[in-house]
Amino acid sequence: MKTLILTLAVMITTATFAQQGQKNFIDHPYIEVTGKAEMQVQPDMIYIKVDIDEKDTKNKISLEELERKMINQLEKIGVDIKNDVKLKDISSNFKYYFLQKKDIVLSKEYQVLVKNGQTAGRVFLELEKIGISNISIEKVDHSEIEDLRNEVKINAIKAAKEKAGHLAKAINQSAGKAIFIQEQNYMLYRPAVSNAFYMKGDASSLDMEKAKVPEIEFEKIKLEYSILCRFDLM
């Protein structure tokens, strides 16, 4: 019986302290604001999809020869073949061959990573010279996207602190330490591939040796954060 009474006493005391703590927080004067920050950055990771297919040359050049020429052209541009060129897929028409008794045609899909629009333009131009024209921008990104995300988040908190200070000053008070911080909205906008870039230049010239390198300009990646903050009102 004594044990039961003691347990109840402890529970009641704990609940009382909890209620008092909650009441103190509610009664505590504070100012609540939302800070926003955004950043736009030029993508420095441009992924180019390259499809090579024997039928593009009417089977006059083997897939191996097309690959060799592609690698040579990319090396000439300055692309890191070991780290920035990946084989994504390989296919053939073996099934169609057995049904139709046509020539077997092989194809491969590569992904080429470049760091800027000028190099991307050179990839388009140089591969076009050797008969590889099935090339497209697959996606864009930034190599420091996580660091940029944190930077925008910090700027949003700083904006909230500055806003709270201005509002408090208007009533002859000041904003003190933060007592509550909550992330609200976050947006990372990577432009859709179809709208990510436009090309300027003469990549379709009949004289490919004299064609100028096309200038590819990319839409910027946009980061935006909103953070809710409460500060002591002093």
Question: What's the arrangement of secondary structure elements?
Answer:
Blueprint: H1 2-27, E1 30-41, E2 45-53, H2 63-77, H3 81-84, E3 85-92, H4 94-100, E4 106-114, H5 117-129, E5 135-141, H6 145-169, E6 175-189, E7 197-200, E8 215-218, E9 221-233
Antiparallel strand pairs: 1-9, 2-4, 2-5, 3-4, 6-9, 7-8
Strand order of the largest sheet: 3-4-2-5
Tell me the span between the first and last alpha carbons: 50 Å
The SSE string, one letter per element, is HEEHHEHEHEHEEEE
For this structure, what is the CATH homologous superfamily of the largest domain?
Protein of unknown function (DUF541), domain 1
Radius of gyration: 31 Å
Low-confidence stretches: 1-23, 93-101, 198-206
What would the principal axes of the Cα set say about the shape?
rod-shaped
Describe the sheet with the most strands: 4 strands, antiparallel
Beta-strand residue percentage? 25-35%
Question: Looking at CATH, which topology of the largest domain would you report?
Answer: Translation Initiation Factor IF3
Features:
234 residues, 9 strands, rod-shaped, disordered N terminus, 26kDa_periplasmic_antigen, signal, Translation Initiation Factor IF3, Alpha-Beta Plaits, SIMPL domain-containing protein, alpha+beta, 35% strand, 3-stranded antiparallel β-sheet
